[in-house]
Amino acid sequence: QLLHQPLGGSPTAGPTFNRSVPGDGDRFTVKSASSFQGWEAYDQRHGAQYRQVVSLGNLEESRWIVAPGQSGLPASPHYDDLLARWQSGGYLPMRAGDDRE
């Protein structure tokens, strides 16, 4: 569950800002998430929202992903457009800026 801070706890604003997807694994799983309510609880309350894999041998092979998306505005198409890819363990290629020679 991806709870928006600070509006995610609001009964009226929460549904607009929060996102939720099923997660896999347990406390011994790489890329795991868990609950502050105990390991028996199934609601995952914390985990890696941003993941990055950097290939020092070939920077062009580096990858990243952030959930739920790149925008902080719920009305934007990029607010949660990366959530499904993040959930499935997918990544996007990193790109160099325009100032690169």
What would you say this structure looks like, in words?
The chain starts with 13 loop residues before the first helix and ends in an 8-residue tail after the last strand. A 3-stranded antiparallel β-sheet has the order 1-2-3. It is mostly loops and about 100 residues long. Helix content is about 10%, strand content about 10%.
List keywords for this structure.
3-stranded antiparallel β-sheet; 101 residues; single chain; 9% helix; 3 strands; globular; little secondary structure
SSE blueprint and pairings:
Blueprint (H helix, E strand, L loop, with lengths): L13 H4 L32 E4 L9 E4 L16 H5 L4 E2 L8
Antiparallel strand pairs: 1-2, 2-3
| Separate helix tally | 2
User: Given the helix and strand composition, which structural class is it?
Assistant: little secondary structure
Main sheet overview: 3 strands, antiparallel
Round the mean pLDDT to the nearest integer and report it: 78
Q: Any idea what the shape is?
A: globular
The radius of gyration over CA amounts to: 16 Å
CA-CA gap between termini? 41 Å
Number of strands: 3
Order of helices and strands: HEEHE
What strand order characterises the main sheet? 1-2-3
Q: Approximately how much helix is present in the residues?
A: under 10%
Proportion of residues in extended strands? 5-15%
In short:
This protein has 101 residues and is mostly loops. It is built from 2 helices and 3 strands.
